[in-house]
Amino acid sequence: MLSKKPQGVLCDISGVLKNSVNRVDVAIEKSVEAFQRLQESGIPYVLCTNESCYTTEAMAKKLNRIGFNVSADKIISPVSVIVQVIKENNNRPYVLVNEKVADEFAQFDQTNPDIVVVGDAEDDFTYEAMNRTFRLLVGGERKFYCLGKSKYYLDSGVLKLEVGCFIAGLEYSSQVQAEICGKPSSAFFNLAAKMLGLSPSDVVMIGDDIDSDVGGAMNAGCQGILVKTGKYREKDAHHPTVKPTLIADNVYHAIDVILSTK
Amino acid sequence: MLSKKPQGVLCDISGVLKNSVNRVDVAIEKSVEAFQRLQESGIPYVLCTNESCYTTEAMAKKLNRIGFNVSADKIISPVSVIVQVIKENNNRPYVLVNEKVADEFAQFDQTNPDIVVVGDAEDDFTYEAMNRTFRLLVGGERKFYCLGKSKYYLDSGVLKLEVGCFIAGLEYSSQVQAEICGKPSSAFFNLAAKMLGLSPSDVVMIGDDIDSDVGGAMNAGCQGILVKTGKYREKDAHHPTVKPTLIADNVYHAIDVILSTK
């Protein structure tokens, strides 16, 4: 049961609306229907992803290809957060990110950088690029932002290093800690609520990751619904510190409860 | 004052026998003379370096070019330690090291590797090489050795990342901790003493690094002399936990005390 009627909904994408099976997107059962019910209800929503290798436009296209009807301006990602931060502070970023999202930073002056932004640059993590990044960090004069800190991922049956490996290395050598722009940081959920013109306490987050989605959102003051799809495992329901406001079988059930709460 | 007459001497190279000034080796004042006195005394010695970008042959040549008279078999480095470990355990190593020392591993079968060895590979730290290394580590079935864990170094006025950055990243993503083959590990000092046919308690280590040289050697059971050359700073003499057996002005003074101890 929710503690109060949410005025807005934040919803994770992977593991809640869709899964990736052998790199092919597949809508989770009844998720297209659930999402349509949410849209028809008029309750404002934002889709919240930690994906930093696709632009929000590309994410919207991926969803629409499998039956959803969503526009890019309804999706936020770690890139959205850092772009917002840069605009608010008028920063000149040094950027080492995946080439698929590099264009998002083209709008900013990148000369004489005053902050450092590192995302999942994959093949662009060369020794030379790591050195360039390190030299800007060492001494601690610039703030260090990362677009995630995951350890690795499975790509077509092969394990590949994620950005976390390179962030941890840069943190070790520069002795500067990175601030994570994605979930579970409160900055992420605050921005998502702000996009809806609401405060965190007025929104609910739906996610399959007990720490990153539910724990992060609840830390920021939101309600949190854990769904039993995607990466959900039985033990997540008995997490030592994160107690979801509600555990739902799937996003259909979650949205049903949200809409029927008075 | 030393607590007993050492039967053998371990001596650091950089900062004790020589400094590098703009990448040029320069013998430290009276170090050539001191080293000659040690050799003439007949007390057995080993030079102990953490250098993993040069073979012991190349290190000997560098020293002899500035007035010393030393042979490669009197020098041990992290590569010497790991080569010894591999021989003793009959390992098949996967090796990601600097091209300048790669030949030292050519003697070993590197197919179907059962241990992972990472040194300062510099430009060879590509995303692909990091992934290959990571895949062998994740799961924790193979022991992980590193040839050092320094954060960075100064190369002709420019800071460059050292192996520690990449080790820390691989440790973070694989959740496997690396064992350091160089100083300050006890394995290093044990091997050095063994080369002299002595036990650690019978040898003294001379170094300019309070932690890596003096702390490491004393942990292994050796006596430790800190010299006030190289990277020595005033605060090192007041280290919270490492109390050198003796603090000497330089290697000449250190060897003078060793030779005159009854």
List the helices and strands and how they pair.
The structure is a homodimer of 262-residue chains.
Chain A: E1 8-12, E2 18-21, E3 24-27, H1 31-41, E4 45-48, H2 56-65, E5 75-76, H3 78-89, E6 93-96, E7 115-118, H4 127-137, E8 143-146, E9 152-155, E10 158-161, H5 163-174, E11 179-180, H6 186-195, E12 203-207, H7 210-219, E13 223-227, E14 246-248, H8 251-260
Parallel strand pairs in A: 1-4, 1-12, 4-5, 6-7, 7-8, 8-11, 12-13, 13-14
Antiparallel strand pairs in A: 2-3, 9-10
Task: For the structure shown, list the relevant keywords.
Rossmann fold; 4-stranded parallel sheet; 33% helix; 2 domains; 8 helices; 262 residues; homodimer; alpha/beta
Question: Could you explain the architecture of this structure?
Answer:
Chain A has 262 residues and is of the alpha/beta class. Chain A has two domains: 147 residues, HAD superfamily/HAD-like (Rossmann fold); 103 residues, HAD superfamily/HAD-like (Rossmann fold), CATH 3.40.50. In chain A, 33% of the residues lie in helices and 21% in strands. A six-stranded parallel sheet of chain A has the order 5-4-1-12-13-14. Chain A has a four-stranded parallel sheet with strand order 6-7-8-11, sandwiched between helices. A two-stranded antiparallel ribbon of chain A has the order 2-3. The mean pLDDT of chain A is 95. At the A-B interface, helix 4, strand 10 and helix 5 of A face helix 4, strand 10 and helix 5 of B.
